[in-house]
Design goal:
Blueprint (H helix, E strand, L loop, with lengths): L1 H14 L6 H8 L3 H13 L4 E4 L2 E4 L8 E8 L5 H9 L3 E10 L3 E9 L2 H13 L12 E8 L2 H13 L9
Antiparallel strand pairs: 1-2, 3-6, 4-5, 4-6
Helix pairs in contact: 2-3, 4-5, 4-6
């Protein structure tokens, strides 16, 4: 039964057009969420590319709509971090990473995974409660964000919002 269930689970993930959370899968198969977690681990060990997201599981071969990505080069102070992030998520973007181009170490990048204002509030709380120094401090405030959105229009709106705030650096000249 477990091999059959895993095959059905894999088919379900591959045919889904959206992420499916562990509890939904558990309910579908009438098992516990912990068994789903174990099944996912076994499928991954067998080479299946199953990704865990904050919305659930996605198979790399799923029928998920392809997301658009754009790298934005920006510059601002530590006091402007929240405004920058809000401009991105309020215009349909998801902040995937922050990256700086260090003159000695080269590219330094970290995941952010900010998808909504709640993520920003949590991040800003961490900033306030720690001796936070932004990664961009080592490059005089210049940094990049890899942003994901559902459409090119969303990315264009994000670009306009960052430009309006005076954060966007345009290197096309």
């Amino acid at each position: 039964m477990t091999i059959t269930r895993r095959k059905k689970l894999l088919t379900l993930l591959k045919e889904s057009s959206s992420a499916i959370n562990g509890q939904q899968l558990a309910d579908h198969f009438h098992i516990t969420r912990q068994i789903i977690v174990q099944d996912i681990a076994i499928l991954r060990a067998d080479g299946e590319e199953i990704i865990s997201t904050n919305r659930g599981y996605i198979h790399s071969a799923s029928k998920q709509p392809q997301q658009m990505h754009r790298l934005f080069k920006v510059k601002h102070t530590i006091d402007d971090i929240e405004d920058e992030l809000v401009a991105i998520v309020d215009n349909g973007g998801r902040v995937k990473t922050v990256l700086v181009d260090h003159p000695v170490y080269g590219e330094i990048q970290t995941l952010l995974k900010m998808t909504c204002r709640r993520d920003i509030v949590h991040f800003m709380k961490q900033v306030e409660e720690t001796k936070f120094r932004p990664l961009s401090e080592i490059t005089d405030g210049v940094h990049y964000h890899l942003v994901e959105a559902d459409t090119k229009q969303d990315l264009d709106e994000i670009e306009r919002a960052l430009r309006k705030l005076g954060f966007l650096i345009d290197d096309s000249f």
